[in-house]
């Protein structure tokens, strides 16, 4: 309909303009034509009656003149005829001669003269007339005039009839012209659109330009160049080439996504208000996620939606459950969502952490799936979706959805905000299709995630597992080359975006030197300067492999007794999810293993394992890393594991050894670490010995390479790469929206 108006309105206006000019011209032509015709008729009348009138006038036969004139004026067009003398007196006239004085005006000023005759149009009381005055010499002394009056009313009526016919004809031409033009235009545009879309399809984009219709070549050439520019921009956005910082992220928002609205959704809040006696304190959880996304949401003054879990959270929000953060310099809005204890237990503790967490980590803890937990999980997801829609100020916001707590949320957002760009990041591993099939609601979870525009995982391996799961359980079209999945006309880009940490870590500022950190830790533990120190820092989670790691220390001491008294392993473990039996059992098991090993090898105030069960602040953790000779990360399965990268970032002295599980996503990047199978405790023990014995030169070479990678692929690069993908999608959609739906037509 829009194209009909776009083409038809200018055409109608142009044709009407031409019709107006043609109408005026036609009216002038017809009027002149009728005048000339009447003038000729007047001349014919004069020529035909001249001899008789001359004779009758010479004989002063007024009665004869009257009869002659009455006979002529019977013609319906002849109004009257009369004879005027030189003094302007009427000599004789037909009976219908008008009352107006005509004879006195010998040569009207407005008249025209042709071959001695004078013609004048005049408006009389009876209507418009043409007065024709012919000189008539009766004798040498009497030069009279024969006056012939024609009624011109017929000319006006004929002109009106002719113009009416002309207007009707032009109107018909306009209607036919509009219909034909619109039809031809639509057919042409459709043909062009199909041809251009085919020329842009990556599978045929290399087709020679000679195969494209000549009239389309300039357009196709221009669009291809635009798409190439977008791709080049994407390549330039590679984290390998760009020093990613918070400022870089803000520049991406400003340059690539100007005016965009950003909404972040996560289970955990970026700021928690807790009550401490009579006062309220603000806690900022140590989270790489907050570090990465806060510069984006600050730049856009967006909204962060999260579960309000602090003991004083309700006291600090307004009537709309909003609070401006950060407290010291408010830049965006934190929107809190409240959950009952039953909802938190069902959605978070049970379905998310007793079901999805062990399912995805394959840590040999049986996933627990209960229908009542699933219903609560779905209801909580719907509540967050409703909150997002309520907070959205535009129809196409950018929504960052974080983690496995919100698997259904992307689809729920897509249904309410179809033009939104939904970026979902799955922070834990994705199992293979056979393991994932354990979940009773596997199709619903896959469909929920495929509501995303961009779905990110830490590693390509997890991406492949997800695609295989979709391939097995969903009806879809999968483009493995482009890593896209199409379901129901919608497309999702599934890709690997390895998360990282900020560079340099903020907690390093003001931290003592490496030497001071080593001295202070030794003083706290009562260790001599020659005692080597290994560290492990995790939550008490069964996926981290803490008991196996401690058993490997026991094996090391058993097989290499020369290290007894010369080596201490410091394991920091923060209690977590204590409501769940599996976590309580793990903590008890780890404590028992440490006590057993210490009881066997401790001597003279020395013990091989220091198990510290409490939460450590970021500066305490980094101090441990800087003081250690090696760090052990032996996750049984992990999406990424940022402990490994934090250890690397803390070692500004280019020293230290990283022992890293091959089942942690970080092992795909930190290839200079000592990679190990955490289930093989004998090999793990030997790897610890190798770490204890590694020369400083080798440590330096390995650490430098790892530090370069963590520096370049920092957490800002992680967020920036997804933002650039979102910007590319939006630009591509804008370009292709002009040429009809394509493979990205309904995509984000």
From TrEMBL:
Keywords in alphabetical order: Membrane, Transmembrane, Transmembrane helix
GO biological process: trehalose biosynthetic process
GO molecular function: alpha,alpha-trehalose-phosphate synthase (UDP-forming) activity
UniProt cross-references to Gene3D superfamilies, sorted A to Z: Glycogen Phosphorylase B (3.40.50.2000)
Ranges annotated as spanning the membrane: 161-184
Presence of the UniProt keyword Acetylation in the record: no
Family (UniProt): Belongs to the glycosyltransferase 20 family.
Protein name, entry field: Trehalose-6-phosphate synthase
């Amino acid at each position: 309909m829009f194209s009909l108006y776009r083409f038809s309105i200018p055409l109608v206006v142009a044709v009407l303009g031409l019709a107006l000019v043609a109408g005026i011209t036609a009216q002038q032509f017809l009027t002149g034509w009728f005048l000339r015709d009447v003038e000729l008729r007047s001349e014919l009348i004069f020529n035909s009656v001249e001899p008789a009138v001359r004779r009758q006038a010479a004989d002063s036969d007024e009665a004869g003149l009257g009869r002659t004139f009455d006979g002529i004026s019977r013609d319906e067009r002849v109004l009257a005829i009369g004879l005027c003398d030189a003094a302007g007196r009427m000599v004789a006239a037909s009976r219908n001669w008008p009352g107006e004085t005509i004879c006195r005006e010998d040569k009207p000023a407005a008249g025209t003269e042709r071959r001695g005759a004078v013609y004048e149009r005049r408006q009389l009381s009876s209507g418009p007339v043409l007065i024709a005055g012919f000189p008539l010499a009766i004798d040498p002394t009497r030069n009279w005039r024969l006056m012939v009056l024609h009624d011109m009313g017929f000319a006006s009526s004929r002109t009106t009839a002719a113009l009416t016919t002309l207007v009707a004809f032009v109107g018909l031409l306009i209607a036919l012209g509009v219909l034909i033009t619109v039809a031809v235009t639509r057919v042409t545009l459709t043909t062009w659109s199909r041809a251009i879309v085919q020329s842009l399809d990556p599978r045929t984009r290399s087709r020679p330009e000679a195969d494209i219709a000549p009239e389309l070549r300039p357009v196709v050439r221009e669009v291809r160049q635009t798409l190439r520019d977008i791709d080049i921009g994407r390549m330039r956005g590679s984290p390998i080439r760009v020093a990613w910082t918070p400022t870089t992220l803000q520049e991406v928002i400003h340059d690539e996504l100007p005016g965009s609205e950003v909404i972040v959704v996560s289970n955990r809040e970026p700021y928690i208000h807790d009550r401490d006696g009579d006062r309220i304190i603000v806690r900022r959880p140590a989270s790489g996620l907050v570090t990465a996304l806060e510069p984006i949401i600050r730049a856009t003054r967006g909204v962060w939606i999260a579960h309000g879990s602090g003991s004083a959270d309700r006291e600090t929000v307004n009537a709309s459950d909003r609070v401006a953060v950060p407290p010291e310099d408010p830049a965006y809005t934190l929107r809190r969502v409240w959950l009952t204890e039953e909802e938190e237990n069902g959605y978070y503790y049970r379905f998310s952490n007793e079901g999805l967490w062990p399912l995805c980590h394959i840590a040999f803890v049986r996933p627990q799936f209960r229908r009542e937990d699933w219903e609560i999980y779905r209801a909580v997801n719907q509540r967050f979706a409703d909150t997002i829609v309520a907070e959205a100020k535009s129809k196409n916001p950018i929504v960052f959805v974080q983690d496995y707590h919100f698997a259904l949320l992307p689809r729920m957002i897509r249904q309410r905000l179809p033009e939104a760009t939904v970026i979902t990041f799955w922070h834990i591993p994705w199992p293979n299709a056979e393991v994932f099939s354990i979940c009773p609601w596997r199709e619903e979870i896959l469909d929920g995630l495929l509501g995303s525009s961009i779905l990110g995982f830490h590693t390509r391996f997890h991406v492949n597992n997800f695609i295989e799961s979709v391939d097995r359980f969903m009806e879809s079209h999968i483009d493995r080359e482009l890593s896209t999945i199409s379901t129901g006309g919608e497309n999702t880009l599934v890709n690997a975006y390895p998360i990282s940490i900020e560079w340099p870590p903020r907690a390093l500022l003001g931290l003592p030197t490496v030497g001071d950190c080593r001295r202070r830790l030794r003083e706290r533990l009562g260790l001599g300067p020659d005692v080597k120190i290994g560290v492990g820092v995790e939550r008490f989670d069964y996926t981290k492999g803490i008991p196996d790691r401690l058993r490997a220390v026991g094996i090391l001491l058993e097989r290499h007794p020369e290290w007894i008294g010369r080596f201490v392993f410091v394991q920091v473990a923060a209690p977590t999810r204590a409501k769940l039996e599996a976590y309580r059992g793990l903590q008890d098991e780890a404590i028992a293993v440490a006590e057993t090993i210490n009881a066997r090898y401790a001597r003279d105030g020395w013990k091989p394992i220091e198990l510290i069960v409490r939460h450590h602040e970021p500066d305490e953790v980094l101090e441990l890393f800087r003081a250690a000779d090696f760090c052990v990360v032996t996750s049984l399965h992990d999406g990424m594991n940022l402990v490994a990268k934090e250890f690397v970032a803390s070692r500004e002295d280019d020293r230290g050894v990283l022992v890293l599980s091959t089942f942690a996503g970080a092992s795909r990047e930190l290839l200079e670490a000592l990679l190990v199978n955490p289930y093989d405790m004998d090999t793990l023990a030997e790897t610890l010995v190798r770490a204890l014995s590694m020369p400083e030169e080798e440590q330096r070479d390995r650490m430098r390479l790892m530090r370069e990678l963590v520096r370049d692929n920092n957490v800002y690069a992680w967020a920036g790469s997804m933002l650039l993908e979102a910007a590319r999608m939006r630009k591509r959609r804008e370009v292709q929206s002009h040429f009809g739906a394509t493979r990205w037509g309904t995509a984000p």
